[in-house]
Each structure stands twice: as C-alpha cells, then as structure tokens.
Amino acid sequence: MNDQGVQATFCATLVDEWARRGVRRAVVAPGSRSTPMALALVARGEMAVHVVHDERAAGFVALGLGLDGIPAALLCTSGTAAANLHPAVVEAGLSDVPMLVLTADRPAELRDVGAPQTIDQIHLYGRSVRWFHDAAVPDADAVGSWRSLARRAFDAARTGPVHLNLPFREPLVGQPGPLPPRLAAGHRDGWTAETATERRSLTELAPFDRPRGVILAGGRSGVAPDCVVRLAAATQWPVLADPTSGLTHVAGAVTCADALLRHGPFAADHAPDVVVRIGRPAASKVLAR
Predict the structure, then answer these.
(1) 171, 194, 217 — which closes off a domain?
(2) Among 194, 216, 235, which residue terminates a domain?
(3) Is the backbone peptide bond immediately before 98 cis, with ω within 30 degrees of 0?
(4) Contact indicator for 110, 169 with CB cutoff of 8 Å
(5) Do both 59 and 188 map to the same domain?
(6) What is the pLDDT of residues 182-234, one digit of tens each?
(7) Cα-Cα-Cα-Cα dihedral of 68, 69, 75, 78, to 10°?
(8) pLDDT for 62-104, tens place per residue?
(9) pTM for the full model?
(10) 157 and 228, same domain (yes or no)
C-alpha cells in the first residue's frame, strides 16, 4: 500500500471506531491538509457531516451538537485555522461538553522551518482539553495501535474536549485498504448520554428529611424528568427549573425564580436548609448566589 493509502486507511479506521461507539455527527471546516480525514468522514453513510467554512463558527456548531452527551468530530486544516477553534474548545472544557477536536498538521520535517500555513499546534488548547495527542504521520507498521488511539480519544472525551493533532504528507488523496480488526468484545461498544453520566442514589447526596429544601434543575444532568418529579413529590420541595433543564413544562416547576429572588425580603424568608442541584449550574447569576 502506498503512503496516501496508509493515511486514508488510518483515518477510515479512526472514524470506523468512533462510529461503532456512537459518533454520528461531524463538523468540517474545509481545507487542504485535512483532506484524508474529511474523506473518511463523508464516506460513512451514518455520519451527518456539517460543512462550515468559518472555523470559529464550526467550533460552536460542534459545541452545540455535543450537548446531548455524545461528541461530534470537529475537523480543520493546519495553521491558524486550528487557533480559530479555541473559543469553542474553551467553552466545551468549562461546560464538560464532549468534543473530538481533529486538527490536521504538517509533518515533522515542515515544522519550524517557515513552511506556509504552519504554526505550533502542540498543546494548542492548553488545559481546556481532557487529553492531547500529537500523532505521528500514519505508518503501516503502527496499524495495530490505530483503533486503540481512537478508543482512548473517545473515552477521554466523556467529560470534555480532546485534541488529536494529525500530521499528513502529500499526496493527500488515497484509497483506504482493509481496516485492522476491531477491538475485543470486552471493550465498550457504545456510549450514550445515559451511560456517560455517573449515577449515584439520590439518598446519598443530601439529607431529605428537612422541611425547607429546594431542587435546582439544570441542563445535561442525565437524570430522567420523572425521577426529578418523584423526588419533588417525596420531599415536597419546589423545583427551580433552569431553561436548559428540560423541566420547565413539569407541573409546579418554578420558572421565574430569578425575579422572585431579586426581592430581598422574599429571598430571606424562603432561604432553604438544603439545596439539591441536578445537572449544570443555573444560568441565572441571582439564582447561582
């Protein structure tokens, strides 16, 4: 197999492993150096590929797609294109939104020599990512590690973005060959928002025998609405439902807590003894206090 075929097979293997584990969406900001991975993504019929020409916008599209707990693959070409993804990667890191950030790069011999469209992409996103890996140019001798690389990136993305820096050599268009065998059946074969959320019994989280309690319902909790409703019924505590919680429609949910708590005497008279937060923090600054 020629070099471009090896690169195509490497990319097809990563995409196959991610698709097998539940990834169904990709965002591609077009460019030349990222061609091998872009072709691998569009070759998968089950993969919805969104083409966004502006890298900054592409990053935020991928951020939104990851809100359901399953990462989208976000691909761009080399150079400052990768830097334009940074705002969305920071937001994903702060909000624990899964994301597979794939930046194409020049091979080692073209780095630090003034080659065009080349910047230092090593640890480009700093501490915002859960894991970073600067891959080698795909080599047929390393075929046995390709699926493990995809699996590790996927697993690391459970709680936020990961960054794979992928160097490719020209020519960039090749025909993929047979993919390496899939990993043993003992490995995780799928990931959904439900399996991505660590669960504990609610009775472990707070004393529920207090009369003055409140339930703060935020977004991306992984908790079924019926469970929150049952908790509210059992404790007789109100549910303060953030707009991102998906619980604003629940009977009795308080959706105007921000306005109520701006009234000082009301807030003082209704201060709870126990606060149970389910999901992300509230968007309201007043409620967060």
Answers:
(1) 194
(2) 194
(3) no
(4) no
(5) yes
(6) 987 655 444 444 444 444 455 555 567 778 899 999 887 778 888 999 999 88
(7) 130
(8) 999 999 899 999 999 999 999 999 999 999 999 999 999 999 9
(9) 0.78
(10) no
